Amino acid sequence: MTPPSDSFRRGNVLFLPQTEQAMSKQTRRRFLTRVAAGALAGVGASASLNPGAASGETRRGADLPVPTAPQLKWQDFEVGALVCYELHMQAMSYNQGEAQKTRIENVDLYNPTKLDTDQWLEAAKAMGARYAVFTASHESGFLQWQSDVYPYGLKQLKWRDGKGDVVRDFVRSCKRYGIAPGVFLGTRWNAHMGVLDFKVNQGKGDDPIKQAQYNRMVEEMVTEICARYGDLCELWFDAGAYSPNKGGPDVLPIFEKRQPNCVFYHNEQRADHRWAGNERGTAGYPCYATVPWAAFVANRNEENFFKILRQGDPDGDCWSPAMADAPLRNHEWFWRPGDERKVYPLDSLVDMYYKSVGRNANLIIGLTPDRDGLLPKGDMERCREFGNEIRRRFSTPLAETGGSGEQVVLTLKRPSRVNHVALMEDIAHGERVREYVVEGLVAGETWRTMCEGTSIGHKRIQHFPEQEVSQLRVRLTKSTAPPRIRSFAAYHADPNPLAD
User: Fold this and answer.
1) What letter does residue 345 receive in the DSSP assignment?
2) pLDDT > 90: what percent of the chain?
3) 269: closest CA among 245, 292, 304, 247?
4) DSSP states of 431-481
5) Alpha-carbon gap, residue 157 to 171, rounded angstroms
6) Which of the chain's ends, N or C, has fewer CB atoms near its CB within 10 Å?
């Protein structure tokens, strides 16, 4: 792909054009950080991340990309819920392709007589979610809050006398259940306004005035969401907000001014986390939190882009950890009648957990309330089963410790059977570990390899054949700076998961 004519390079890093309006203080700070990283790469890219023993490190810890405070908080959430509710699923048997193009004139088809956001959050809490995101708008363009942007939303309904505000109710329910609230804004499609793939006139985009009007509407939507509902943990744009670099709305300055403690997901200016590349709830391995920003933005159609989504890049200059998503009903993000059989079995959800949270990614599960506004009974029960199983396996470690340096030793109170370990780096100082080995002291005298790996990051969970040990140790055999291990914990949990 040929870069734009007004792009430029620092070292071997390509920077794409960015409007002055979008360059708020935080954006400028990130921008300058990337310039510095590019300069370093240009001087010695091949040596800047040359794995070696910690005692012979070639890269200082201060040079590593590190997360912001909101990113740290988001990674600690580990599990989230995406509650998907939309006018289209009430007016028709939901099909994404049709929903993107079908304009629904009768908004009073939106009539969820039993809608209960507390019930949604009860399910999220039961499955172990620490944050939840609600689809405040999606393909229909219907706005599920008291919006003044345009007359197509809750204000125009007979339902609740036109005074309903599902975003408000959702945020309040989140607070009642101790869950951080987030909002999803679907701006890529808007069937009410004839917008496809961010462009007006059914995707033709050949009307600059109309496009500008739509862009301003999106900016006003973002302002309302960011200003009215208190602190949010995440603002999520489906498939990325169309950035001003390509004639889209300029939403980033609004977000950064009004939601400084929130993560932004995402556009070509900023991506506080990335998609893991599939909708199966799994990330690749290794899975690093860093990506090469310029390549990540410029090469979206190249095969290597999807490898970066799945695995990140240990040489990356930008902190953008992975998010693995999957609907609770196999590939059904919105409720459809008769699809109860598609609810994932418990084993599949547990497998997702190991292959997301256990691989340094967040896991977000899509929940689908029905036309009445309630999550179906079977879906609720599966959420409880999933949360209970994860808590059963990992709520109480046999022993836990932390430390720094090339080796961390974990001593058990007594010789015990162990078949899992969970490792966490102190990622506030960056991802430093590149290879490690976990060993167990067997029969009080022999160190035996239990497992090994490459990336750790926020969390790495591994299981292995059960073995009775009195001690465990993790040897950090390759790193880019002195390793910092936030947690090293041992568990015994049966049955074993499906796969590692």
Assistant:
1) P
2) 78
3) 245
4) --EEEEEEEEEETTTEEEEEEEES--TT-EEEEEEEEEEEEEEEEEEEESS
5) 21
6) N
Contact 319, 271 (CB under 8 A): no
Can you give the pLDDT at residue 196? 94
Tell me the two tokens of residue 105: 């004139």
Residue whose structure tokens are 């599960």 = 365
Residue 443, token pair as written in the block: 């029969």
pLDDT at 439 over 90: yes
H or E segment and range at residue 308: helix 303-311
What is Dmax (Cα atoms) for the chain?
Answer: 77
Across the range 349-357, mean pLDDT stands at: 98
Q: What is the pLDDT of residue 62?
A: 65
Predicted structure pTM score = 0.88
The CA angle 272-278-279, to the nearest 5 degrees, is 100
Nearest to 368 by CA among 406, 396, 330, 400: 330
Task: Report the candidate in 150, 143, 131 with the shortest Cα–Cα distance to residue 86.
Answer: 143
In whole angstroms, how far apart are CA 78 and each of 40, 177, 249, 364, 487? Answer: 32, 17, 31, 8, 15
Nearest CA among 305, 308, 357, 348 for reference residue 327: 348
Nearest by Cα to 98 from 184, 206, 189, 199: 189
Q: At what angle do helices 166-176 and 117-126 cross, to 10 degrees?
A: 40
Contacts of 165 by beta carbon, 8 Å cutoff, 6+ apart? 144, 145, 146, 154
Q: Determine the 3-state secondary structure of 191 from DSSP.
A: helix
